[in-house]
Every structure is written in structure tokens, then in C-alpha cells.
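Project outcomes to date are best conveyed with an example. Our students and postdoctoral researchers have been running inverse folding experiments weekly, and each run begins with a structure described purely in C-alpha cells. The record below, which covers 199 residues, was selected by the lab manager from last quarter's runs and is presented without edits.
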């Protein structure tokens, strides 16, 4: 689940104790509130940060996003700040080091996928950011009305997933790629009534 996807039974918008109306998934956790207000849905074009989000969304698969978000400083430390060149140079000794690092998610497949994805990024022959953003959909004419309307997969996320897989990327399924689109601002899924909903 992405941070952004929530059960339909959860309130779509909640007024915080600071008087700010936010998407319901961000209402009850300080780190979620910061992420909601400062990152989620904001356009991100930086190559390194997009590579980081691509990797972290892969680590999130099967887990809650808050688990990843709270461990992000540790992930950055463990993966050399997600510098693509540095991660691409990781060896089997680094894999073993990461498998022993209790601060991160110790999943061999996801760790090796991150290293492989760094190598794939270097071999692209094109900008990762430009590739990802080429799948940005046309903005919606109006914000979604409630959290129940937030999709898990879209034609664009499926197409992005297919394109990345064809180039050799791993842990980039359509649902994971839609979460990336949300977190990197290719789409704005702040719902109507949230102070960050599109106007």
C-alpha cells in the first residue's frame, strides 16, 4: 500500500489540531503529515531523488509506507545516499552488509534489485527522470472527491511499469509505479477539501 491509499472507511479529509485540512491518511502521524505537506504530490525531477523513490517504493511492496518513511534516513545511509554510481558499484560483500543491517528492510531480492536498478539506470542512455515523466497523465479537471476514488493502478502506471521492465528494472509493478507517480507529483491525488488539493 502506498501512504496515499487508504481504506474507503477512513475519513477523506481531517482537520488537524493545527487547523489545517489534510487527506485522511496523513492526519494521525507527524511524519505522515510532514510527508503529505512537503513531498507527496509535489513535482520531483531530480535524478537522484527519483532513483531513491523508485527504490524505496520497491522496498515498500507488501509493507506500509510509514515503515519505509521512518527508515528512510537509514536507507540513505546504507545505500550511499542513493547515489546511482555508488550503488551500481556495490558488490556481494555489500549485499551481505545490507542483509545484516537491522535498520533497513533486509530482503535479499529487494536489495539486489536496488543494485541492479542502479546499473540499469546507468545503462539507460537517457534520463531516468525524463523517462518517468514521459508517462505523466493529463491533470484531472477537478480533484478527487474522496479517498475511495484514489486508484491503485492507471493505464499510465501500467505503461510506465512495462517500459521500465523492458529496460531491465525490477520491483516496478503497476501499483508500485502509481505510488511513485503520486509521491513524485506526476499526479496530484490530494482530495477535495485538503489544503493541497489541485484547484
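After processing, the design step wrote out the following sequence:
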Amino acid at each position: 500500500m502506498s501512504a496515499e491509499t487508504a481504506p474507503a472507511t477512513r475519513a477523506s479529509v481531517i482537520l488537524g489540531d493545527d487547523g489545517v485540512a489534510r487527506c485522511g491518511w496523513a492526519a494521525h502521524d507527524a511524519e505522515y503529515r510532514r510527508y503529505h505537506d512537503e513531498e507527496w504530490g509535489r513535482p520531483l525531477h531530480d535524478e537522484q531523488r527519483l532513483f531513491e523513490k523508485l527504490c524505496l517504493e520497491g522496498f515498500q511492496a507488501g509493507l506500509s509506507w510509514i515503515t519505509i518513511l521512518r527508515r528512510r534516513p537509514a536507507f540513505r545511509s546504507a545505500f550511499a545516499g542513493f547515489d546511482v554510481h555508488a550503488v551500481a558499484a556495490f558488490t556481494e560483500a555489500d549485499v551481505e552488509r545490507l542483509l545484516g543491517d537491522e535498520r533497513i528492510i533486509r530482503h535479499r531480492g529487494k536489495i539486489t534489485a536496488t543494485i541492479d536498478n542502479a546499473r540499469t539506470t546507468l545503462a539507460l542512455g537517457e534520463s531516468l527522470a525524463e523517462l518517468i515523466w514521459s508517462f505523466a497523465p493529463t491533470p484531472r479537471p477537478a480533484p478527487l472527491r474522496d479517498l475511495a476514488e484514489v486508484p491503485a493502478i492507471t493505464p499510465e502506471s501500467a505503461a510506465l511499469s512495462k517500459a521500465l521492465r523492458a529496460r531491465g528494472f525490477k520491483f516496478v509493478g503497476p501499483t508500485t509505479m502509481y505510488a511513485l507517480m503520486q509521491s513524485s507529483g506526476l499526479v496530484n491525488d490530494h482530495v477535495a477539501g485538503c489544503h493541497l488539493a489541485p484547484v
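The mean pLDDT is 93. DSSP finds nine helices and two strands in the chain. The training component of this project remains on track.
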